[in-house]
Specification:
5 strands, 157 residues, binds coenzyme A, Rossmann fold, alpha/beta, 42% helix
């Protein structure tokens, strides 16, 4: 049976840290879906549609990866679509508190067999966040190598 995994987030924008998790998860699971969400707590630079388009362009060479979007509870989306695994990246110990809370709450909401699996973020990207990329870029700083080329092109545009 195929193992279907989900990696979700706001991806505003997608960074090389996310890319690293996506490439590794794509090797571990038969199918990986990137679930883009509009997080009402965050002011977005790109619309949900733009982010989905950018992800599709940046991930076009990964044959077992597809891009989708959802709203509402992650667990509802996971149960509805029949995912087996939810992948999360851990950048530093500071992520752990938030992630364990979320994983434990989701465990109550998921169908029985769904697992949250954590991958350690590559240390070269452990300081990265989408907000930091937006701040540095908007103040004229160089973000070469921190976002995929496809994303940088669209940010420039
Ligand atoms: N490399 C680089 N940056 C990373 C990263 C990595 N490996 N992993 C995370 N980040 C960054 C993200 O870019 C994000 O940056 P930002 O805060 O500047 O936007 C930050 O770390 C936090 O990431 P994440 O926790 O994945 O936040 P998110 O907004 O991208 O996604 C959801 C959060 C979608 C997973 C979560 O809000 C959710 O499940 N929402 C649905 C509602 C729900 O079910 N709520 C109940 C949960 S129990």
């Amino acid at each position: 049976m195929k193992t279907k995994a989900l990696y979700s987030g706001s991806f505003d924008p997608l960074t090389m840290g996310h890319m690293n998790i996506i490439c590794r998860a794509a090797k571990l699971y038969d199918e990986l879906t990137i679930g883009v969400i509009s997080n009402p707590a965050k002011e977005a630079m790109f619309s949900l549609e733009e982010r989905e388009d950018m992800l599709k362009a940046a991930l076009k060479d990964l044959k077992n990866v597809k891009v989708d979007h959802f709203s509402g509870l992650l667990a509802d989306y996971v149960n509805r679509k029949g995912f087996d695994v939810v992948v999360r990246g851990l950048r530093a110990t500071t992520d752990f508190e938030y992630e364990i809370q979320m994983a434990q709450m989701n465990a109550r909401l998921f169908n029985e067999s769904v697992e949250t699996v954590f991958l350690m973020t590559d240390p070269q990207y452990s300081f990265l966040s989408s907000s930091m990329i937006k701040e540095v870029y908007s103040l004229g700083g160089c973000i070469d190598g921190l976002v995929p080329d496809e994303i940088l092109k669209r940010m420039v545009r």
